[in-house]
Amino acid sequence: MTAPRSDLAVLVDGVPLPAADARALWERFSDWMEAHRGDLAGFAAQEGFASVHPGVAEGRPVLVASMTTAQRPYTSAQAVARPPGSSGGSGGRHEPPRRDRSRGRKAKK
C-alpha cells in the first residue's frame, strides 16, 4: 500500500523534504507570514536559509528554499520545474499570454 501524497512540498536546493518535515515547515511559514506579511527574507533567515519562495509544482503548493540563492522580492507564486529524477505530472500550470481584444479602442479612465 502506498502512503498518501502530501499536498504540500518543500524543495531545499532542489531536494524534496520528507512529507512530515515539509508540512512542519509549511506550518511555520504560514504562521510567520500571518504575523509578518510578505517578509520572506525574515522567514528564510529564521529557518537558516538564504531564500524561500512559494511556488507551484505538479499542481501542488511548494516552498522553494535555498542555502545559497539570494532572496528575491515577494511576488505571486511561480511554477517550479520538477527536480531531476521526479516522475509524472507537469512542471506547473502555464497560462498563455492574453490577447489584446481592444480592437484599437482606448481604455476608459
Give the overall average pLDDT: 77
Q: How large is the count of helical segments?
A: 2
Share of residues in strands: 15-25%
What string gives the helices and strands in order?
EEHHEEE
Radius of gyration: 17 Å
Class derived from helix and strand content: alpha/beta
Helix share, percent: 10-25%
Low-confidence residue ranges: 87-96
Euclidean distance between termini CA atoms: 60 Å
Task: Describe the largest sheet.
Answer: 5 strands, mixed
Number of strands: 5
Walk across the major sheet and give the strand order.
2-1-4-3-5
Shape: globular
Model description:
With 109 residues, the protein is an alpha/beta fold. It has a domain of 63 residues. 23% of the residues lie in helices and 20% in strands. It has a five-stranded mixed sheet, covered by helices on one side. 17% of the residues are buried. About 9% of the residues have low confidence.
What's the layout of helices and strands?
Elements: E1 9-12, E2 15-16, H1 19-35, H2 40-47, E3 51-57, E4 60-66, E5 78-79
Parallel strand pairs: 1-4, 3-5
Antiparallel strand pairs: 1-2, 3-4
What keywords describe this structure?
109 residues; alpha/beta; 5-stranded mixed sheet; globular
Describe the structure concisely.
The chain has 109 residues and is an alpha/beta fold. Helix content is 23%, strand content 20%.
